[in-house]
Design goal:
By secondary structure, the chain is an alpha/beta fold. It is built from 9 helices and 12 strands. Helix 3 packs parallel to helix 5 (about 155-165) and helix 5 packs parallel to helix 6 (about 185-200).
């Protein structure tokens, strides 16, 4: 059996007196798609942000591809990663946020190229070639020269996905990527995410899109108050949840 691509052990995160994560442990196999659902404030986003060390865990260990996130282990010695080491690590962990965080002064193509030249060290020509391929993949071949202000929210989010994929990450994390979009734009982003899943990418997706989770996920995790309440295949979680808390959440969100 292949080792997990993502491994989380007893993860906790506190913000002052607020315990956002409370002893979360999970593993994600290579190529597995895991959707994380739960009410606002349940810890979904904090979990994803700890996986790529945008938030430093209060307790616990995270590994991606067998490598500890945020720290370098040498025998019994453990030290915190420096800035350059963290940048290299995050290049292997693609992340797409609720908001798009595109550089407004760069074209869509230049936004996708930037990490390739600055972090991966590709030449401008090689970066442009890869970025163009990804812009085609997300259906934006005709928008390469457009600046973010001239793109719809759905188009901007697709550029953000292309930017993350261009780095050829080991895993992709999606933090409620459709929650800031107008309803009519949600479908175009979910379609691109489904294609990424079909291509075999290891994915964790925090989402309120239950149809997407049922359709695409190999496993669904329900979180509440910083803990995993239950986890299982989509049909089990949506049709036969074991926990009353899961049932109450689904009754409310699906009604």
């Amino acid at each position: 059996m292949a080792p997990p691509m993502i491994g989380v052990e007893n993860l906790a995160k506190s913000f002052g007196a607020v315990r956002a994560l409370d002893g979360v442990s999970l593993s994600v196999a290579p190529g597995e798609v895991v959707c994380v659902i739960g009410p606002s404030g349940s810890g979904k986003s904090t979990l994803l942000r700890c996986i790529n060390f945008l938030e430093e865990p209060t307790e616990g260990v995270v590994r991606v591809g067998g490598r500890r996130v945020g720290f370098v282990e040498t025998g019994a010695q453990v030290r915190r990663m420096g800035g350059r080491e963290l940048a290299g690590l995050r290049a292997d962990i693609g992340m797409v946020f609720q908001l798009f965080y595109l550089w407004p002064h760069l074209t869509a193509l230049e936004n996708v190229m930037l990490g390739l030249t600055e972090v991966r060290g590709l030449s401008t020509r090689a970066a442009a070639d890869r970025a163009k391929t990804l812009m085609h993949k997300v259906g934006l071949a005709d928008k390469m020269a457009a600046f973010p202000e001239h793109l719809s929210g759905g188009q901007r989010q697709r550029v953000a996905i292309a930017r993350a994929l261009a780095m050829e990450p080991k895993v992709m994390l999606f933090d409620e990527p459709t929650s800031a979009l107008d309803p009519e734009l949600v479908g175009e982003v979910l379609q691109v995410m489904e294609q990424v899943a079909r291509d075999g990418m290891t994915m964790m997706v925090a989402t309120h899109e239950m149809g997407f989770a049922r359709r695409v996920a190999d496993r669904v995790i329900f979180m509440d108050h910083g803990r995993i309440v239950e986890s299982g295949p989509p049909d089990e979680i949506f049709d036969r949840p074991r926990e009353e808390r899961t049932q109450r959440f689904l009754d409310k969100i699906l009604s």
